[in-house]
Amino acid sequence: MIFLYIILGLIGLIILLALIAPKQYEVNRSVIINKSLPEVFQYLKFVKNQDNWSPWKKKDPHMKQESVGIDGEVGFVAKWDGNKEVGSGEQEILHVEHNEQIKTQLRFFKPWKSTSDAYIKVTEVDANQTNVTWGFTGNNPIPMNIFMLFFNFEKAVGKDFEEGLASLKDILEK
Fold first, then answer.
1. E strands in the chain
2. Distance CA 145, CA 80 (A)
3. Which helix (H) or strand (E) holds 13?
4. pLDDT at 131
5. What's the pLDDT score for residue 8?
6. Quick check: 133 and 29 in contact, CB under 8 A?
């Protein structure tokens, strides 16, 4: 009988955690780059340029990559298959607002399946400075949302975004 109460208690706890755990996430970081907005946007709209500043490319410089379509245009898909740190997946350009933002969808296949909506937004600080915000949003399905209660996803991914934006700043300001 005690065993039954323990099982029911655990089930109740899991249901409670699933109800209170976050169902959505958003992570983003920003950096100011000392270049004009058109120059920065022209570089950022090409997904392949992410190979130069992405922290994930540095984690597996030998990952297999392929692409479909015309980079910088809606419908372009960049695919990757890498080591355990980067997994496998693809990124598709969904929307380009000239000199404002690029929206993409990230589809991860390994180490686990998930889909996120990514974006890079640019805003003019002044004629020679541009604020770049890089981020992504998505949904936390049950039971993944319970896991997010115990793992600081925002901090972990945010650190990668900060590293990538610092590299982007270095590249564009040279």
1. 24-33, 64-68, 77-81, 88-97, 101-110, 114-126, 129-139
2. 26
3. helix 2-20
4. 98
5. 81
6. yes
Q: What is the pTM of this model?
A: 0.84
Task: Tell me how far apart the alpha carbons of residues 71 and 69 are, in angstroms, rounded to a whole number.
Answer: 6
Strand partners, 108: 89, 114
Cβ pair 90, 80 in contact under 8 A: yes
Q: Where are the domains of the chain?
A: 2-173
Are 81 and 63 in contact by the 8 Å Cβ rule? The answer is: yes
Nearest to 93 by CA among 48, 62, 154: 48
* Sign for the pseudo-dihedral over CA of 160, 165, 167, 168: positive
Cα gap 96→152, rounded to integer Å: 31
Reply yes or no: is the peptide bond before residue 22 cis, omega within 30 of 0.
no
pLDDT of residue 14: 74
**CATH class (in words) of the domain with range 2-173:** alpha beta
The helix or strand, by DSSP H or E, that contains position 89, with its residue range, turns out to be strand 88-97
> 153 with 136: CB under 8 angstroms?
no
What the block records as the tokens of 105 is 């969808």
- Residue 152, pLDDT score: 67
Q: What is the mean pLDDT of each run of 10 residues along the chain (174 residues)?
A: 82 73 83 97 96 90 94 97 92 97 95 90 96 89 69 75 95 94
For the record, the structure tokens of 108 come out as: 């991860």
73: which strand partners? none
